[in-house]
Amino acid sequence: MALVGVSSGACRTQPTAPAAPPPTAVPTSIIASPDPSPAPPGSAIEVPAASPPAIPLLIAAEPPRCSPADWSALSLGPLLKPGKTVLPTQPDRQGARQSAFESECTDSPQGQRRESPPSVVLDGVEVRLAGATPAGSTGRRWTGNQCTFDVRLADGSGPTVRLGPGDIPPFTTVSALVRSGSAVWLAVGFNGYTAEFPKGGNRIIALDLCAGRVVWKSKDAMSNSGLLLLDDYLISPYGFTSERRYVFVLDSHSGAIIQKLPVIENVCPSKSWAPHWHPGERCDAPGQFVGAATDPRVEAGVFLVDTNTGSSSFQFR
Predict the structure, then answer these.
(1) C-alpha to C-alpha distance for 167 and 185, rounded to whole angstroms
(2) CB 288 within 8 Å of CB 295
(3) Average of per-residue pLDDT across 239-259
(4) Rounded mean pLDDT of the chain?
(5) Which of 220, 96, 238, 236 is nearest to 169 (CA)?
(6) d(CA 27, CA 159)
(7) Other C-beta atoms lying within 10 Å of the C-beta of residue 277
């Protein structure tokens, strides 16, 4: 039942009417009656009660969910061999190469600086710099830090995995990251000769960011130039000046090495990266095994990595 207010001015007699008592006092508020019969003449008009405004139904938002990845080891055959034969059914794929927290974590002749944001998001994964403590000097007498990283899915659907000194060697930082669902492969490394970093680096760490754990870690000196996830294969090139260079083909589930292929230039010059080549010059001597191996990708039906002057092409088996 609703109480309806009626203005008292609507029931006053006009000023010119004789001063006589009003016939019946009309209350300033009337209780609406459920009786449907017409109101007697002269009585106040009952105003139907307005329906109360609809209250929106509040539904709690479901938190984002994730599913742990399947890390069962697979029986995978060789994937690549040197050559230029095109596989038309193989779509183009670009590898990942992202650097983060270099100024805070790697060695430098100028010392460390705080220049990076507290966290970065790479391929849907948040990597946060959780700590950076002095770690002394590398073999080239440059000072650097021991860094710790917190890694989680950026949508908040899984726990945070902390990567500390047992996972991240001193003077190393994030160099590449690829993801499939809650499975993440993170490359951490340095820019220098292996001998100058005796505590290791340039490794791959596989993470399950739904289960919240490190699944496997590769050996050192296996990744410093990007990562490419190709179905169940993880492809990682490694190379540096005066060091032998290879393309590693891994079982992404277990980290087992399926192939270790020398990088030999058979495309000259490089299509995308040739800092030491100029028009009219030759590429490195055929068959050389040292120098950079970077930017892994599938392009026009072949797998390619770039060297300092040319590229190395591999065809699919």
Answers:
(1) 13
(2) no
(3) 94
(4) 84
(5) 220
(6) 67
(7) 18
Residue 3 is predicted with a pLDDT of: 36
Model confidence over 55-81: pLDDT tens digits?
Answer: 656 566 677 899 999 999 999 999 999
Residue 286 CA to its chain's centroid (Å): 39
CA dihedral 278, 298, 193, 204 (to 10 degrees): 160
Mean pLDDT along residues 197-210: 97
CB atoms within 10 A of CB 18: 5
How far, in Å, CA of 181 to CA of 214, rounded?
Answer: 15
Cβ pair 188, 227 in contact under 8 A? no
Which run of H or E residues covers position 103? Answer: helix 102-105
- The pair of three-digit structure tokens given for residue 280, joined into one six-digit string: 């009219």
Q: Is the pLDDT of residue 26 over 90?
A: no
- The pLDDT value recorded for residue 271 is 64
Q: Which residue has better confidence, 287 or 212?
A: 212
Q: Which of 167, 219, 220 is nearest to 195 (CA)?
A: 220
267-277 confidence digits (pLDDT tens): 887 766 666 66
Distance, CA of 246 to CA of 262 (rounded, Å): 4
E strands, the chain, where? 3-5, 29-31, 80-82, 93-94, 119-122, 125-137, 143-153, 161-163, 173-180, 183-189, 203-208, 213-217, 228-230, 233-240, 243-251, 257-262, 294-299, 302-306, 311-316
Tokens of 228: 């490419």
Structure pTM? 0.78
